[in-house]
Amino acid sequence: MTQSPDTPNRSAGRESRRAAFEWIRRILRQGETLEDAGAAIPRLRDLQPRDRAFARLLTTTVLRRVGQLDNAIARCLDRPLKGKLNAVQDLLRLGAAQVLFLDVPAHAAVGETVALATGVRVGPHQGLLNAVLRRLVREREAILADQDAERRNTPRWLWQAWCETYGEETARAIAAQHLQEPPLDISVKADREAWAERLEAEILPTGTLRLPPGSGDVRRLPGYGDGAWWVQDAAAALPARLLGDVSGRHILDLCAAPGGKTAQLAAAGATVLAVDRSKQRLQQLGENLNRLSLAAATVAADLTEWTPPQPAEAILLDAPCTATGTLRRHPDIARLKRPEDVPSMAAVQRDLLAAAAQMLAPGGTLVYAVCSLQPAEGSEQVDVLLQSRNDLERVPVRPEEIGGLSEAITPAGDLRTLPCHLGERGGMDGFYACRLHKRES
Ligand SMILES: C[S@@+](CC[C@H](N)C(=O)[O-])C[C@H]1O[C@@H](n2cnc3c(N)ncnc32)[C@H](O)[C@@H]1O
User: Fold this and answer.
1) Domains of the chain
2) What is the pLDDT of residues 389-415, one digit of tens each?
3) pTM (two decimals)
4) Which residue has the CA at smallest separation from atom 6 of ligand 1?
């Protein structure tokens, strides 16, 4: 299963690989996120869009496949590389990703990776790089046939947690989606069919417009500059829908930035008060809404210390989380998150959910959402809340509210999308959402 990059010419290709090498190291060795690390690499900005896309594909392929890459490299070494040779290991990962998973000619994958060694001060190891990569070219088919790709590329703690929660077959289907570049998903303000035709997009049963992976720079697509649509994963578009018809209603959008769901609510005719503690992210929300010619009032505040002007009739709380449901789009997360992040996020979510429940008016609806696959951040939060308050009750999600996606509704009636849902059409992010109603008295 190789991917065909739009391969740049030789000198641009070398610059793309150099940028990818730096990108990989910032993420895997310094713990930076894919987006932050990318923004901090000046040579990446200087590349042409096609070459930048190649650098990104190299980087995300290493992140998606690092378990298989390390195993394949280890098979070609007599003994493991010493810790201080981690730059050699990362160069090998970069070269092996091209040999094993990208449709790059073998001579370019090997030659260009070896050539990079001098520039990154591991010149004396060129012989080793050359020997390992050439052996990978020769033994590619046999090595790949002998690897359990889904399991090898999934951190052990996540694999175990998903097997426990969803069963091994589903854990494997989830992990399989993480190996693919994801499609581009779009939410439109209006005229869905017309935009689908113009963008040559498929319309998913949930209403999202879907373009194939590698659709290029979104800012160059028709309608972006005119603010006709915004990028939003199909699953991310579902929680706000659980508030029903919001036209003319006042909605409290908690943890709102950068505003994907605020845009959805405003486009559906709601009057939105968007609250987030990050001023910088709220500024981004403002810019996003401006482009879309949509409006929302904003408040920069920590929810645990803030009270709304009056109790709210409808609340969406899209809480911060480990984001383990978004590994298709953010493969760095698999490499950066640790098991201990789950309980620490769960503690934050518990306080935010308790605060949101307090803001709700009698008769009102609260939707709690996270893009995590871990139950401790999803259904277990709701269980804790319902144990401590008897004025709240679940209102089960109905399949017709989410485009007939009945496999994404739990026995308790919550929304639980998995990356393998709509798998044959490119999958979707893993979102959890629960709808709660506050009794009148
Ligand atoms: C998952 S993101 C929200 C995404 C957003 N709803 C959207 O659809 O684009 C979580 C947000 O929660 C905010 N946040 C985290 N802790 C918070 C707190 N104590 N009070 C308010 N906002 C908080 C973060 O700044 C972040 O923007």
Assistant:
1) 10-147 (1.10.940.10), 239-438 (3.40.50.150)
2) 999 999 999 999 999 999 999 999 999
3) 0.95
4) 256
